[in-house]
Write a structure and sequence with these properties.
single chain, alpha+beta, globular, 31% helix, six-stranded antiparallel β-sheet
């Protein structure tokens, strides 16, 4: 982009660190994540869902969500079995785009960050900026659904 471009986009990358959790603990967390992902509406997944193409593929062993917009694509890919991840140190599991205000247009990514972080602190590493308001809204949304209890 040119320096005077009115639209500056930044990547938000979320990495899973499989060495920080057992397979049994991950399976429990993964099932909790899947329950949420299966029931979340397009309106809760994406800001302006009418301007996005949402592909949600749920399998027994993994799920893949892709949100395409005019200029960006956000992606989430999680596996049930930790052994499926080739890189066992750090695995890119979510990739989103935030605007120059630090706002991400896929609230589902923030929800999953909050859900994983509150259940297993230190399991993920986030590279990029998370807007504090997005975090707060996500906490509220997950609490309403009863997902933040251990």
């Amino acid at each position: 982009m040119t320096p005077d471009s009115p639209l500056e986009l930044e990547a938000l990358e979320v990495y899973l660190q499989p060495d920080f959790i057992t397979q049994m603990e991950w399976a429990k967390l993964y099932r909790n994540i899947c329950r949420y992902v299966q029931t979340v509406t397009h309106h809760d997944m994406v800001r302006y869902p009418e301007k996005a193409e949402i592909m949600r593929k749920m399998e027994t062993s993994h799920f893949h969500i892709q949100i395409k917009r005019a200029f960006t694509t956000d992606v989430i890919l999680l596996y049930l079995e930790l052994a499926c991840y080739i890189n066992q140190e750090e695995v890119l599991i979510m990739l989103g785009v935030s605007n120059n205000h630090g706002r991400i247009s896929t609230p589902l990514i923030i929800d999953l960050i909050v859900l994983i972080h509150t259940q297993q602190p230190g399991l993920i590493r986030v590279k990029g900026y998370l807007h504090p308001e997005d975090w707060t809204v996500s906490l509220y949304r997950l609490q309403e659904r009863g997902l933040l209890m251990k």
